[in-house]
Each structure stands twice: as structure tokens, then as C-alpha cells.
Design a protein that fits this description.
Layout (H helix, E strand, L loop, with lengths): L1 E5 L3 E5 L11 H6 L7 H21 L10
Antiparallel strand pairs: 1-2
Length: about 70
Amino acid sequence: MIWVMSPECGLLSLPVEWTDVTGEDPFVVVAAGPSPFHTAGLLELAELVARMRAERSTDDPSGVNRITP
């Protein structure tokens, strides 16, 4: 909270987030710039994972990879 003196209302408290007193939001700083991922590539990856899961489930219904000596 930050305290502000107002001639009309007297002493007020405001959340710091409502002011420019704090520094930049760390998320905004880290997220700045273009994304290394594109929608088309992510959709293609999701389809690949779905196909791999489907293949695995038909090979072994338990979903567990078996290791044999």
C-alpha cells in the first residue's frame, strides 16, 4: 500500500500496483519479445504427440513400456 494525501478526502491508501512507484513486472520483462513458438508448429507437435500416444496404446494397452532381458 502507498499512502497519498488528497485535499478533498484527506489521507488515502492505494495498492502499489495502481501506481508507477514499483519497477517493471518481472513477467512482462521475461515475456518481452517474440515467442520462439508459432501456432502452426505447436499444432503440428500436438498432432505428433497424439499419434505417438495412439500408437503406444495399440502396442501395449497398459501404457507401460516393458523391458525384457
